[in-house]
Amino acid sequence: MAEREERRFAQVSRESVTLMAESAGVELGEEIAAVLAEDVCYRLREAAQSSSQFMKHAKRKKLTVEDFNRALRWSNVEAICGYGAQDTLPFRSVKEGELFFVEDREINLIELALATNIPKGCAETMVRVNVAYLDGKGNMELQGAVPAAVQSLSDDLLKYYQQITRAILGDDPHLMKVALLDLQSNSKIAALLPYFVYVISGVKSVSHDLEQLNRLLHMVRSLVQNPYLYLGSYVRSLVSSVMYCILEPLAASINPLNDHWTLRDYAALLLSNIFWTHGDLVSGLYHQILLSLQKVLSDPVRPLCSHYGAVVGLHALGWKAVEKVLFPHLPAYWANLQAVLDDYSVSNAQVKADGHKVYGAILVAVERLLKMKALSLSHPGEWCVNAQTGSLAAAVGYRSPGLSPPPESLSEAAFGIASHLQAGSGGCPWEEWAPVSLPAMYLELYSFFGDSLAVRFSTGPGLDSYPYCPSTLLREPKKEALGQGSNSDTARKMPQLTANLSISPRRDGSPRTDPPPPSLAAAGPGRSLARSSSAQRSRYSSSRSGQRLTGLPRDVFPKARFSSPQNGPPTFTFVIGGRQMGQRCQGRRPFQTVFAPTPPPSAVPPRAYAHKLPVIGRVGKPVRRWTCSHYSLLLPL
Amino acid sequence: MAAVQGGMVDEKEEVDIKTEPQSDGFVNTNATDGRQLSPSPGSSSSAGSSKTAAGAPEDQQTLLAVLQFLRKNKLTESVEILRREAGLPEDALDSKGVDCGAPGSGGSAGGVDGLDAGSLLSRVTVSSSAGTPAPTKAVADDQPDVSVVLSAYSQQGDPALYKVYYSDLKKFIESVLDCHRAELSQVFYPLFVHMYLELVYNNHESEAKAFFQKFSGDQECYYEDDLRVLSSLTKKEHMRGNETLLDFRTSKFVLRISRDSYQLLKRHLQERQNNQIWNIIQEHLYIDIFDGMPRSKSQIDAMSGSLAGEAKREANKAKVYYGLLKEPEIELPLDDEDEEAENEEGKPKKKKPKKDSMGSKSKKQDPNAPSQNRIPLPELKDSDKLDKIMYMKEATKRIRLGPENLPSICFYTFLNAYQGLTAVDFTDDSSLIAGGFADSTVRVWSVTPKKLRKVKSAADLNLIDKESDDVLERIMDEKTASESKVLYGHSGPVYGISFSPDRNYLLSSSEDGTVRLWSLLTFTCLVGYKGHNYPVWDTQFSPYGYYFVSGGHDRVARLWATDHYQPLRIFAGHLADVTCTRFHPNSNYVATGSSDRTIRLWDVLTGNCVRIFTGHKGPIHTLAFSPNGKFLASGATDGRVLLWDIGHGLMVSELKGHTDTIYALRFSRDGEILASGSMDNTVRLWNAAKAFDDLETDDFTAATGHIHLQDNSPELLLGTYMSKSTPVIHLHFTRRNLLLAAGSYAA
């Protein structure tokens, strides 16, 4: 019976009772001790029993000393003091006596009282709310940095993931380098790719921290360069993360001391890297990238750093991209930039500095465009390779050039070659149009950049090919191209067509013969709008320059360049205007070629600029401005 | 802890009123006498009913015993009155009275009884010094006069034969037809307990232990807790003061057995001359005999488990007005508001018909609703009306929940509470949250950006222009604005907490035996309601304010009004602690859950217990009424949620899934979904609408009182939502049906 009891409950032995009695100075008989022991056990159990209800009502799972003391108090028994600590008390054993006891050290009260390291009080109790489940479904994002799915990975991988992310995003540069190197060469991390991509997609949340952005970009590079990884559709996600770094007005850019320019350069390089090495994984990627770059470029609301990003991005994608997107866009954009650069107010200083950055980037891009174009013209069969090597540098060194470019760009390249070699074979309008425009392009570009372009260009390899370009190539190819280009344009670029049509009533007096004007395909409606709106600007600016011809010393490049071709009398402005009206028509180019030292068609700000004028505080002629606004009112159609 | 059985105000009056006026000379005995009649609600209520019909033989015996007692004390008038009321013939008293009275009046109290009488005295003094309103019921069996009738274990057979008796019965029951076996098996547990206690009481310790060891394994697993208590009890001295024991000795264990099964049992016992068992059945068991099919094992299991067996059928027969009260007419301000809204938003017409339908709905009187003024309710203040309007507006934006449209859950985690969070409540409009803590504090947080502000001091208030429109804004002291306020006053853990509907008051109940009323305008304590004298486990405001209910360790629930320092009603009847209290939406009823594993529904007007629900296998820790007032949900330590139909007094569904104590239950605003929160760190959502719709109400009209539950918990479970490591101790649906859960992070 006793054994059963022992199994069931803890028991106080009669020896303990006798011992306690002796310590209190009472002699107990065996029998009494036994009875007492049993009673003590029962009372203990009773107290434990009733103490458990305090635990239950406190909604706890752990019985505390306090609960027990409460039970004792309610049954009129003195509470036991001194055991209120939340931690478990360690039992110590004494071997000789087979005794277990709780250690009770002496405490030096003086020391305690005079101690200087006063422990902090507990943090204040507070309530936090979070949406745990939305519409009965789990929350998408947990608070932690680790996505929930990571937890389903094997322990090793999880550890690797954590170590790597920690190392890369951590403070130790050496550790980061090691981690990045490993990421570049590890062949067993395919399972982790989604999570790394997820981490990289975090660029959006750290746009204030250049350092972190850099690290994430490094991570992208490592992943891209890892030969064992098949990026698959994750390319898209990586590209969008990189594009974010290139194009977004990062929070870090607010502080001019932050060198976000380098970040954008680096990201652009990375973009081309991804594109050339993995671009074939996602169809249409090239076009998507170009489109988004173009969108940024054509959006005057975007800050200059975004434009800068777009330019370097285009540049990094190769001269064809520059030719397709940047060049046709230049006239429109130029005016915007011009406005910024021409503003000398103190408040504009920072923006102006940014403007110069953009200017420089454009210059670099355009220069290579010309060089490569000239090169491709002089060595038609090689341009493709050239373009590739030019834009890629060593990044694709280990890949065969023929394989690496994405299919669509390859096909375009083929078309380009074909059209170039056998003019008039039809196909992509960009390609057909391109060769024609080299001289014109140069002229146009020259009109923007003036000598700064020429000087730099003259040092380039395409120097010798250039001079005869205008004269030799101008005539025949251009005409064919125009005819073909116009056809394909009407067929393919509907929005552009409508834009032109809407403008056309304004051009009644222009010597236009073909209804659909050929255009720079990639420019789309934006360009045509800009062009036509630039008509007013040209009038205005030329007239202005006419006024100012007296020779206000201009220390910035554009002015100097503008003034030089416009040295003619003020009346000339009208002629320019008229020509601008018809610029989209066939009459334009012959006209331009005839008068070789053309006044710049580029001195033509778009509507946005025209609107900006009064704000910037230029002296404008009210009447002219009125015509401007009159024009601009109709343009959005 | 002296067990206290609060005066059974409602139930003992039949007899008590007659005896007490004349009992001055016999304070002690008479006081206990009154209690003797009250210990089990069953016996007293049957005494009450016996005035119409002579009732069951036991009841008559009781009456006779009482008469005998009265006569012995020469209270002849009382004898006459009682006899007349009970409709007993003169000779019946005489003839039977002799039988009954003989052993008692012979003064054969015996050494045992004398001893207990002494201890009784001490107990009474102890408990009265503790200030309890009623002395203990522990002594019921110790009075010589009625000992034969009402108690207990003094009569004894040969202790060695107990085992034989029990195993003989066991053999018999195992041999009967299957259909009867389940029913008759119910007898085992109470028999076992009472035989064991008889052995212990008569100092046959070793026999008792042997008996326990032999048969304890046969008992249903859900009695495990009680058995553990029993097993620790091996001495007669220990029986005194043991609450579980007191429950057993003083209340009759109720069994429901079909007539056939009962006849079978009776015949067997009579054949065997097994008087020992027959006596126990006669004295300690109440067998509720019904005509019809014997019940199946699962049917019995569903209803058993409580400390005192099932509820008697007649206990749930009373009419309950479970309908909702008619909403007060506050059309006019509503119109203004709506028109304004229409003008602003420019979407006219749409709201008009809606509002009308709402109005007409409230005009229609629910046939099951109590009359509007059955309970006097406080009049609506202007601010209440505004709040009602707000409520209606919010209600129109309410998300209709359903199995396909589950609510979003917001979790309010209490940080740095160090396991000290003991109670949580939200205001109805979810603008405030309050927490009760083990360190005796009550903390109130504002959940909205609106901060908590005190009213200015009296001196400052004098300076205010009382005519201004924004006087209510002006009285607030901007300097005191803060996100949370701490209320100090209790001297023990705060176990229950409840906001008043108008958000001006907060109630808290604590281990220190008091319920405190706090003002949320001044953030001070206004009243401390003393009465329970033992830990108060729960308290709740009436949905209409003014009244509140509290329940505690003293086994009673009390109804209070905020402006009375003494309770208006005392609801006594539970055999163990009242662990949770809840008001019916119409404020006419109060539901209490108890450690005795029963739920009782009390009529606020009369104080009567109108429903007893048995079926839980562990202490009940939470209750929730459905918004339409028809159903009640209960959650217990056994991890099950039970749904009850109040009108019919029957269990309608059993929701199994939780693995630990359920501390929170809440119906969504439209009653479609039931949310339960538990110690197992989960919130579960149940398809309440389906559970209620599936009911075949026709079955109820048969009035057999038997339920047949199919186990459809998996179908009804709509979702299980884990928290990280946070037990869910409170749930709340906002007016738009967003589910808020609260708990403290257990690191």
TrEMBL record, chain A:
Keyword Cell membrane applies: no
Organism taxonomic ancestry: Eukaryota, Metazoa, Chordata, Craniata, Vertebrata
Protein name (Swiss-Prot/TrEMBL): TAF6-like RNA polymerase II p300/CBP-associated factor-associated factor 65 kDa subunit 6L
Annotated SUPFAM superfamilies: ARM repeat, Histone-fold
CDD domains registered for this protein in UniProt: HFD_TAF6L (cd22932), TAF6C (cd08050)
Role: Functions as a component of the PCAF complex. The PCAF complex is capable of efficiently acetylating histones in a nucleosomal context. The PCAF complex could be considered as the human version of the yeast SAGA complex. With TAF5L, acts as an epigenetic regulator essential for somatic reprogramming. Regulates target genes through H3K9ac deposition and MYC recruitment which trigger MYC regulatory network to orchestrate gene expression programs to control embryonic stem cell state. Functions with MYC to activate target gene expression through RNA polymerase II pause release.
Keywords: Methylation, Nucleus, Phosphoprotein, Transcription, Transcription regulation
Subcellular location: Nucleus
Protein family: Belongs to the TAF6 family.
Entry keyword Nucleus: yes
Source organism, top-level taxon: Eukaryota
MF terms (GO), sorted A to Z: protein heterodimerization activity; RNA polymerase II general transcription initiation factor activity; transcription coactivator activity
Organism: Oryzias melastigma
Bias type Low complexity, positions: 520-549
Transmembrane segments: none
Disordered, as annotated region: 480-570
Subunit structure as annotated in this protein's UniProt entry: The PCAF complex is composed of a number of TBP-associated factors (TAFS), such as TAF5, TAF5L, TAF6, TAF6L, TAF9, TAF10 and TAF12, PCAF, and also PCAF-associated factors (PAFs), such as TADA2L/ADA2, TADA3L/ADA3 and SPT3. Component of the STAGA transcription coactivator-HAT complex, at least composed of SUPT3H, GCN5L2, TAF5L, TAF6L, SUPT7L, TADA3L, TAD1L, TAF10, TAF12, TRRAP and TAF9.
TrEMBL record, chain B:
Location (main, coarse): nucleus
Record's compositionally biased regions (Acidic residues): 332-343
Subcellular location: Nucleus
Matches recorded under Pfam families: TFIID_NTD2, WD40
Record field: compositional bias (Polar residues): 22-37
Matching InterPro entries: LisH, TFIID_NTD2, TFIID_NTD2_sf, WD40/YVTN_repeat-like_dom_sf, WD40_PAC1, WD40_repeat_CS, WD40_repeat_dom_sf, WD40_rpt
The organism's place on the tree of life at top rank: Eukaryota
WD repeat placement: 414-455, 487-520, 529-560, 571-612, 613-654, 655-687
GO annotation terms (biological process): transcription initiation at RNA polymerase II promoter
Region (Disordered): 1-57, 92-111, 332-380
Keyword Translocase: no
Protein name, entry field: Transcription initiation factor TFIID subunit 5
Bias-annotated ranges (Low complexity): 38-57
Example of a GO cellular component annotation carried by this entry: transcription factor TFIID complex
Keyword Transport carried by entry: no
Domain TFIID subunit TAF5 NTD2, chain residue ranges per copy: 157-285
GO function term, MF aspect, one: RNA polymerase II general transcription initiation factor activity
Family statement drawn from the similarity comment of this UniProt entry: Belongs to the WD repeat TAF5 family.
Keywords, sorted A to Z: Nucleus, Repeat, Transcription, Transcription regulation, WD repeat
Bias (Basic and acidic residues): 355-366
